[in-house]
Each structure stands twice: as C-alpha cells, then as structure tokens.
Amino acid sequence: MKAFKMMSSRGLWAVLLAAGLALLHSGCMTASGSQASQVALGEDEVSMIEAEGEGNRYWPRWRGPSGQGLVKGEGYADRWSDSDNVRWKVAVPGRGNSSPIIWGDRIFLTTAYEGGTRRSVLSFSRSDGSLLWESFAPEAPPERAYAKNGYASSTVATDGTYVYAYLGNQGLIAVDFEGKIAWHNRIADVRSAFHGTAGSPLLYKDKLILFQDLSSVDKAFVAAFDKSSGKEIWRTPRPGKVGWGTPVAIRAGDRDELIVSSNRTVFSYDPESGKELWRCQGNKFEVIPTPVVGHGMIFCSSGRAGPTMAIQPGGSGDVTGTHLQWKAVKGSPFVPSPVLYGDYLYMVNDMISVATCYEAKTGKVMWQGRLGEPARESFSASPVAVDGKVFFTNDEGKTFVLKAGPEFNLLHVNDLKERVLASPALVDGTWYWRTKGHLLAIGK
Prior knowledge:
The structure is a single chain. The radius of gyration is 20 Å and the shape is globular. It has 2 helices and 35 strands. By secondary structure, the chain is mainly β. Strand 27 and strand 28 form a beta hairpin. It has a 6-stranded mixed sheet with strand order 2-16-17-18-19-23, with no helix packed on it. Helices cover 5% and strands 38% of the residues. The chain has one domain: 7 Propeller (Methylamine Dehydrogenase, Chain H).
C-alpha cells in the first residue's frame, strides 16, 4: 500500500477528479418508500455499544470509547507542529502502525521486530512518555505482509484488567498491567491474502471478538473468545477472502448485533452465538474502513474509492433490497474509516485526497474539498471529531482541520513532519500520536 508518487500532470488529475465527482453525484441512491416502510426500528433504537464505566473516561480501544472517533469534552489544541504544543516526545522501538490506547496513566501499543518474527505489547507512562515495560508474544513464523502494513497494525483493547492484542500468526494474547502474559491463544495458521493482518479485536461483555478473512475461503472466520481465559466460545465460518476491518457491536431495538463489513458483503451476527442474522450486498472486493452508526443506520465504506452504504439493521436474511437506505457508488475511502458527527458523515477518498461530507439521513452530498496534493493511498489514519471540528491526517503527518458543518471550511493545516499511519487517541485535553518512530503528547 505504499503511496505512489504524485503525477506531474495537473491537467490529468483534474480530468480524473471531475469524472470521479460526476460519478459520485450521479450514483447516490436513496431507498424507496416501500423499502423504508419495511424497517421498524427508529433512529433512537440503533446505536453503537460504547465502552461503559471507567472505560468511557479514557480511550480503551480502536477509535475510542465511542468506537467511531468521537471525542467528548473541550480544550483540545487544534494547532500544533513538531515543536509547538508538544508536551513530550519519545522514541518507540521496532516498527508498527497500531494506534495508541489509553487507560489511567498508561498508553499501550504493539510493535514488531525482525520481519514480524518477534512482536510485543508496549506500555508507556501517559504523564511523561517513559517506557514502563515490553511484553513479547510467543514466536511463530510470520504471515505474509505488505511493506506499508507490516506486522503490528492491529490496535489493542483493554478493560482495565488486561490488554488484549491480536498479532497475526502469533495469535491473541492478554497481558496484565504489569506486563505479564495472562493467556495466549495461537488461534490458527494465519495466511492472510495480499497485505497481512490489521483488524483489531472487539471487547463485548465477557468476550473478545475477532474476524479474519483469509485467501483460503474454508479458513475465514469470525470468532469469540473468553476474555478471562482465551478459550474459544464460538466460531462461524465466513465466505470472505479479503478484509482488514474491525467488527463493531451495535444495539438494534431489543437485540445486539455484531457487524462485520468485509469482502463484497456487510454481515450481522448474534454476538452471543455467532449465528448470522442478516447480510447486505454491495461492498467492493477490498474492505478496510470500520463502520460507524447513527440516525438509525450503519454506514459502511469499501474499495479503492468504491461505494458507501447506509443500512438499517434489525432485518433477517438478505436485506439488500429492503434495508439499504442509500448508496453512493463512488468516493469512499480505501483505508481510513469515516466519522459521523451530528447530522453529517465525513470521509476522505485517499486515492485522490478529496474529502466528502454527506447528509447522513439522505446521502445528499453537502460538499467536497481537496486536502493537500492529490496522491494515491495518501491517508491511513482515521479522522476524529471534537469541539466542532473534524481532523483528517495524511501519511505525511499533515492534519487538515475542518469546521464541522454543511459547508467546506478548511481552517488550517498542522504538520508533525514525520510519517503518520496510526490514528490518534484523545484523553483529558491531550492528543496522543504515534508516528513512524515516536510517540507524542500534544496539548495546550
């Protein structure tokens, strides 16, 4: 997934952009009245299952306590550089793209050494960035991985007792807050197609849930493991071949659903048993973005500038013709997830560096705007929304700060001057960034 060099012909880019935007506008589809009438759930009956209790105070998993990059509170700096508003900066050993998570005074990351042969969980002090400990997983032959992805792209999760990490062919491990391995489950021989593994584990009640779509169809699965022991509770085979996303758990009326957006199809499972509840066709072949939830719908993006779909949950069987509320056929991100903030859905097409804002309920395009120079696969970090602004960070370490709302308003651009592939964590007025070689705390 290495970013390609920018083409020298601005004219060609202009033609390609114009064609892409025309397809996007012409391809937006809203559900018919008959489709909408078949869905009984109201807007307030569908929600993401967020971290509860003390976990809601911190950043305990991929995309934070909300699971979708939304930040509560005020006082976060919206301007910084590689020196301005930097509280501390420390080196991170090894190599990895996993995002930091936060609990109490602890920051947790994963990293890899020696071509993925050795992988570990790292713990840093949130107050000063000092490295507290490093815990290595049992070694196993590394799976195939693309150069940009590497061997430590999955973000860990924590419940305040253990830190749970998925390390590809080295399996799942749980580590306590002192760095001692509580359990290890090798899972299976992972030979993921194309780019290696990247999806993050999801904590749901007493379970740790993971899906892995493999090049061998008979090995693809979604599975739940006991979070206290690592023992497998259930496993459901999947038809997927390609996918690097993270599952989400939602509340849909009187039931919970586990949503997996991957190869060609969005699936819903019963998180207690693994039984398939419904499926909706329409994804592209390659899927990385994590779904977001709001306004009674699940929003899923896929492909290299492929479609974005808005789906109402709560159905049964194939719901493509009944629960698909709207679909934009072009313009979605390839790697970064979208963010749903208020009435609007924001995303960046990382193939041409263009951000799009949709009216979430209808799929109407509110605006589109260029974020830096057009470049192929130029954004990896997922956007976050806080204090009335949406923040998009590209692979060069530049963060584009936009005012949230129905008009394109680029306020300014911040530059860390170092490669950034990981998404940030935000807690108590401070940003925590992982760059190519460092961990930084940024605040006023």
